[in-house]
Amino acid sequence: MDDAQWLSLLASTFRVSAPLVFCALAGLLSERAGVIDLGLEGKMLLSAFAAGAAGALAGSLTAALGAALLVGFALSMLHGFACVTHRGDQVVLGIALTMTAAGLSVVLAVAWFGQGGQTPPLPNTLRFLPVWFGQNSLVYLALGLVPVIWFFLFRTTIGLRLRATGENPAMVEAAGLSVPLLRYGALAINGLLCGLAGSYLVLAQGANFSPHMTAGRGYMALAAMIFGKWHPVGALGACLLFGFLDAAAIRLQGVSIALPGLGDSMGVVEIPVQAIQALPYVMTVLLLAGFVGHARAPAALGIPR
Amino acid sequence: MNPAVPAVQLRSIFKRFGAVHANRDITLSVTAGSIHGLVGENGAGKSTLMAILYGLVQADRGTIVIHGKTVAINNSRTAIALGIGMVHQHFLLIDSMSALDNVLLGAEPHWRLTRSRAVVLEQLKVLIQQTGLEVDLTRLVGELTVGARQRLEILKALLRGARILILDEPTAVLTPSEAEQLFVTLRQLRARGTTVLVITHKLKEVMTLCDAVTVLRAGQVVFDGPIAQCSLDQLAQAMVGRRVQLERPDVLKATPKGPVSLAVRDLSWRDPQGTQRVSGVNFDLHAGEIVGIAGVAGNGQSELLALLSGMFRPQTGRLDIEGTVWNSSRWLDPTTARRLGMAHVPEDRHRFGVVLPLPLWESALLGYQRSRRFATAWGWVRRQASRAAAQVMLERYDVRPAQLDLQTSTLSGGNQQKLILAREAMAPEQLPKIILIGQPTRGVDIGAIELIYGRLRAMRDGGAAVLLVSSELDEILALADRVLVMNQGVIVGELMNEAVSEAALGRLMAGVSSLTHAGVQAVP
Amino acid sequence: MSRPLELPRWIEWGLLPLVNLALALGVCSAVLAVVGLPPQQVFTMLFKGAFGSAAGWSYTLFYATTFVFTGLAVAVAFHGGSFNVGGEGQAMIGGLGCALVALSVGEHLGQQLPTDLAAIVVLPMMIVAAMLGGAVWAAVPAVLLAWRGSHLVITTIMFNFIASSLMAGLLVGPLKAPGSMMVETVAFPISARMPGMHEILQGFGLDWPRTPLNLTLLLAMAAAIAVGFYLTRSRWGYELRTVGFSSDAARYAGIQPGRQQVISLLIAGALAGLVGINELAGAQHRLMLDFVLGAGFAGIAVSLIGRNHPLGIVLASILFGGLYQGGAELAFDLPGFSRDMVTTLQGLIVLFSGAMAMVSAPLLVWILNRVGGRNG
Q1: For residue B108, which residues of chain A lie inside 8 Å, CB to CB?
Q2: Taking CB atoms and an 8 Å limit, are B106 and A172 in contact across chains?
Q3: What average pLDDT score do residues C291-319 get?
């Protein structure tokens, strides 16, 4: 591959990673506060639909973005209601949110727009266009949020309290602080970030919503968060890695490598694109099994306190 | 601060939890700038009293006066604001964060963490210098020793302006040398005017450390005064003594003991946190006797039962049972234990003894589900046989209501206990040869207690060896032929028959005396 | 996974599922109203499409068969205290297993022996292969849970995606039917096909419309009965349930929680694998990419509303099968209606029965107490 191809690959990496970064940061905040978030996929999907629908109906970028943020926020508040206030099972809720969002987005899309569940393509005036080095402003927002979230978590007292909530809620309570309040706060930001992820898909990467368009990105973001060991910078690194693999997968199609003993008579094997697509998930499993270093989740994660 | 005004005055404090009177008309006074001991067995009411003082629980009746002001303490924030700090037995710390961060959580002076850390660090350095509470604040809590963690908890309380410091069983997790260090620290705190309240059951410590002591028993104050005015014996008597009905049969002769059923040698166990819970325990259990293990709860008795039943593995030790030998490299498991004729009635019946959501007849199988009696070789449960056997168990042990399909959770504590005893006695194919039983009548009504005692004696007369762990002295005195006393993981004494008296036991349990001082006379 | 509340039997088994279902339907009605479709009409047409004709019934039962397998897969794991979200992947690999047997042994024997005889040998082999495939796919997350403490839900979700990639890779490459543009294998030989219900009923002289409903229905019923017996009548089922209710009591009784959980997950995987028999051997007669189509997640909903009980699961599967079938018919007849309405309903059922169980159950008990108090 020559320089131009490398640059193109790099650019694609950032473009593909941006929604992952938003989601991974969202999941990170929630889980650091002790609440498992398996609903990232669903929140992103329904926010994407909201952006596409609002953009088409209201004809304004602000409306589209606002709708996405609102939907993400609302879903996270539902998450909090079920899991924080009522101590519901966090895992089941995440699955429920994703299933419902997947269905609801298509139902509304079909009912309001026909076209097999797609929203009308938005004109460029209602989208985030490339502004600098071929990347749109949302990509820079995603990158910029990483140090902001890092600072918030590790350099502010609220961040300290939030992290403590995910490690030992009993201690936080004994210190006179409110665990539910801190968790709802984390979920609120989580919702907004998922909204940003959803809007990215519809307002920057593509131009409209189509059914199931998140295609598992929410789970990949979850994997990236775990791979990044629940740290903003680690999560960014993992998202970029996964994004790189995704971008590279297409380009590697048809490319062969030499693996003596396998493949044809020359020992040359064509790399199946699916193997590369599966890599992020395989890597996450290896990490969870403890084979690729140690991933330590927040100590009180998932315990409905 | 006027030293004449008591730091804490409690007047006529009453607290009930359902039918249990945790605190009854408690009145005591703590002199400012002194170290005051609060002593009592488990269930005596000391934890409840301190919870009231710290705002975790509200008293039903009574007044609290702090430094001369009558106050209402509704939550821990109020308590902290009044200058009351508490160091719990189980530390509330986050292992993965630094000691400094643990201290400043909730009391951060500034929204920016670096600035907060700097400010608090300075404050802590001053405190450390004044009190001698050395802690490396930059280390992660997980890396600190237990003693250091405790010092950190004390620093946390002092930083928030505690002038009254409550310590709950502070030496429970410390080594003797760490405990010494703690005493030095507490004396230094006293020197700068802090009032220290120590909850403990270790009388020796009270005598060395405290200026005054209050003894609680069954929710009431039985002794309250300066240390100078009392002796160790007095405290021991006060703590454990009571009018005991010795329900022993008149025949007090030495019951001829049968052969050794269970021999324990050099048994030791350390918990995952590294605290030694059982140390070099040696004893023999003979057929046809009831051996009681007395001691204040938390001195290794529970762990001993868990080890003998096969639920824990020891680091060192040897067990001879029914002709088989087990040591730390090959220890028995619960199924093998049962196969060797050992039955186990666990201390915590809710967690271990039954499966609450299951129906009675299925709880009656627990532990014996693989025996040929209840399941075929193919793994099929013999439903008819099991239900019939369960029915007999319920009837023989008077479990009410005797309905096989009722959820186990609907049974009262006493009935659940009867069910467990019935199962352990009747489910095995042959009568059990060894019975391990812990806290048999905790939360059990009088009628059930009578039945349970009767059955245990019957089993003993039938040749079984019974190991009874109980923190109820009445129970030990009523049932045991021989009493071993455990203190801090070690068997500190053995008393038989005539030598078994409340005073002697009390002294052993409180860690006051060891075998040589108890005046044991071997029964000829 | 958190345990459900302990409620009086008749509430837990009878009233609560109905209440949760009603809540989910209620929200669905609201959604329908918002998009301008009259809920009443929709539900009536749905019902008719599902249960109003022999063909409708057949399709309903065909879908139900798949859901019974995935529902049981969730339930068995749940009784041991673990949450099996990997039904999708386990079903895929089960299908792969059965397809591999069909295309190798089935092809071979089909040429050597008369069809009927070959089928008697091949079909059971395919069933075993499907179960093995599903079990193997569940084995890795299960062992990782027991051995390394890896979070089961995350690993099984990851394995769903890995399975998807694996299938895609195989179907685009080595397993692809030569000369075809479709991403699927060649058709299974006749001997490797489950007889359709219409064929069987025709043998009895009954005229039945031709639908995908096939003999696997009986296999599903048998599986449900077997699981029921396993859970309530066998020693292993007792041990598994004990682990699920209290791992402390389990250890007291000499049961090893880790081992029991692994076993339950293997069984769960095997059950999910049987989806392949229904969809591939019974209907499609070839291996293709998207034959599972969310059945794994539907299984979660089925198991939750069926209270993890085999009978409840069978009933819930018929309900869901009916929703799918009715939904398909509606999607044709009613403009603006999408089959994803059913997916939404599924999600809402999981929401109310699973995640919000702590909300609806106590509320229900409170209401009942108030009502009872007034009458009593």
Answers
A1: 157, 160
A2: yes
A3: 92
B295 and B364 in a common domain:
yes
pTM summary value:
0.85
Rounded average pLDDT over B180-186? 90
Question: Which residues span the domain enclosing B397?
Answer: 271-509
By C-alpha distance, the chain C residue nearest B409 is: C6
Of B160, B189, B218, which residue is a domain's last? B160
For chain A, say whether C2 makes contact (Cβ under 8 Å).
Answer: yes
Domain count across chain B: 3
Measured in angstroms, the CA of C118 and the nearest CA of chain A are apart by: 34
- The answer to whether residue B420 is domain-embedded is yes
Chains B & C: contacts with CB separation below 8 Å: 68
DSSP per-residue string spanning B418-468: HHHHHHHHHSSSS--SEEEEESTTTT--HHHHHHHHHHHHHHHHTT-EEEE
- Interface predicted TM-score (ipTM) of this complex, two decimals: 0.87
Residue A305's pLDDT band (cuts 50, 70, 90): low
- Percent of the residues in chain C that have a pLDDT greater than 90, as a whole number: 48
Mutate: best of B82, B84, B88, B105, partner A, most A CBs <10 A = B105
Instruction: Give me the CATH topology for the region A3-288.
Output: ABC transporter involved in vitamin B12 uptake, BtuC (1.10.3470)
Question: Following DSSP, what letter does each residue of C217-230 receive, concatenated?
Answer: HHHHHHHHHHHHHH
Alpha helices by DSSP H, listed for chain C, are: 9-10, 16-34, 39-51, 54-79, 87-101, 107-112, 115-148, 152-172, 197-203, 216-233, 235-245, 247-252, 257-273, 275-276, 295-305, 310-333, 340-350, 357-375
Q: Do B108 and A160 touch (CB under 8 A)?
A: yes
- Which chain A residues contact residue C183 at CB under 8 A? none
| Residue C48, both tokens | 């008719």
Alpha helices in B160-273 (DSSP H): 176-191, 203-209, 232-240
Residue B252 lies in a domain: no
Chain B residues close to C248, C-beta within 8 Å? 351-352
Query: Does residue B1 carry a pLDDT above 60?
Result: no
C121-160 pLDDT tens trace: 889 999 999 999 999 999 999 999 998 888 899 899 999 9
CA A216 to chain centre: 9
Q: Does C236 touch chain B (CB under 8 A)?
A: yes
Q: Provide, as residue numbers in chain C, all residues whose Cβ is less than 8 Å from the Cβ of A278.
A: 161-162, 165-166
Question: Taking CB atoms and an 8 Å cutoff, what residues of chain C touch A90?
Answer: 355
